[in-house]
Design goal:
344 residues, alpha+beta, Arc Repressor Mutant, subunit A, BirA Bifunctional Protein, domain 2, SH3 type barrels, 3 domains, seven-stranded mixed β-sheet, five-stranded antiparallel β-sheet, 8 helices, 14 strands, elongated, binds adenosine-5'-triphosphate
């Protein structure tokens, strides 16, 4: 799904847009099938073959090709048919063939979290994804700003987990594990986790994670999981504390491949959400455990050695006088730059 039926427009979620999005499902499906066919063919592919393969008219094929060109795909036409020469670096729904029906795509939006909230309230299902190329009001915890320039990866995934609200913080852990595992698998970089919601490389923040929950006393209605990744961006405003995959690798990455791999990893980690394996995996990747930390939460300050996390995802800290405290949420500062995990 895609805003306004046109990937080049600036999206705002309105009733009309949601309707248009629903109508876009079919269009995206056909565009996805055309791209697949063109990519599988090393030569020109005739309009007739395409129309037979997709059981649609040649005029319809021509219209979809024109729309793909508008999106930035370079497709040349000759008497022999159509040939794809290049694709834009955009996270368009039809670049994710198995997921396109769940994706709401916006070239630019205030915040993917706001759109996802509206969709969730209207009953959108588990696995709905809101993607934006740019966010103008991206946010982190406590409404802090998350800078979201072009070249990053910004999305919100709608989850409807059947868990008690007390365990919802595990979703932060699950998401951060998925991001770190994906980075390690794809690039061999030593991505580490900082409690409660950051992914770090070389001690600098590469990814922000925000989980917003709508719940009753003992039932979670939905959790919107927002993930912002500094992929092909530079964030000069936070030069000392932030980094990006492009900065670390010295070259741009394929955001499509990364997002596909990450969404698959999240699916895998979701199956471990309430299992001990998730906590074990988080502990292995954690830069916070065994570190001296200062936690500031709701006016309380806890200073000591981070020794464990409990089953709800709370951080257990042993203070200098030996007392053990539990931090459920809060700002966490690492007091020394020593990475406890040396293995990748
Ligand atoms: P911290 O990592 O400092 O504890 P936090 O976890 O409370 O912050 P987040 O919700 O993860 O906050 O992110 C918001 C903060 O991250 C902002 O206040 C800003 O300091 C920083 N920030 C904003 N945009 C980016 C970005 N693109 N990359 C890295 N850091 C950013």
């Amino acid at each position: 799904m895609q805003s306004n039926g046109n990937s080049q427009t600036t999206g705002q979620l309105t009733k009309t847009n949601i309707m248009v999005n629903i109508l876009e499902i079919k269009v995206n499906e056909v565009k996805g099938q055309i791209l697949k066919a063109l990519r599988e063919c090393s030569d020109y592919l005739s309009g007739e073959t395409l129309s037979n393969q997709l059981s649609t008219s040649r005029v319809s094929i021509w219209k979809h090709i024109r729309s793909l060109k508008k999106d930035g795909y370079v497709i040349k036409a000759s008497p022999g048919g159509y040939r794809l020469f290049s694709s834009p670096d955009l996270l368009l729904p039809y670049e994710f063939p198995d997921l396109e029906q769940r994706i709401h795509y916006f070239p630019e939006i205030g915040s993917t979290m706001d759109v996802a909230r509206e969709l969730a309230k209207k009953g959108a299902g588990e696995g709905t994804i809101v993607i934006a190329e740019v966010q103008t009001r991206g946010r982190g915890r406590l409404s802090r700003e998350w800078l979201s320039p072009k070249g990053g990866i910004y999305f919100t995934l709608l989850l409807r987990p059947r868990i008690s609200p007390a365990y919802a913080p595990r979703i932060n852990l699950m998401a951060s594990v998925a991001v770190a595992v994906t980075i390690r698998k794809l690039f061999g970089l030593k991505a580490e986790l900082k409690w409660p919601n950051d992914v770090l490389i070389e001690g600098k923040k590469l990814c922000g994670i925000l989980a917003e929950m709508d719940a009753e006393m003992d039932v979670v209605n939905f959790v919107n999981l927002g993930i912002g990744i500094n992929a092909n961006t530079s964030i000069p405003q936070f030069e000392k504390t932030a980094t990006s995959l492009k900065d670390v690798l010295g070259k741009e990455i394929s955001r499509k491949k990364f997002l596909s791999a990450l969404l698959m990893e999240i699916e895998r980690q979701k199956t471990l959400l309430m299992k001990a394996d998730l906590l074990e995996e988080w502990k292995k990747l954690s830069a916070t455990l065994n570190n001296d930390v200062r936690i500031v939460a709701a006016g309380e300050v806890i200073v000591g050695r981070a020794i464990d996390i409990d089953t709800t995802g709370a951080l257990i800290v042993k203070e200098e006088d030996g007392s053990v405290k539990e931090a459920v949420a809060g700002d966490c500062i690492h007091l020394r730059e020593e990475a406890p995990n040396t293995d990748i």
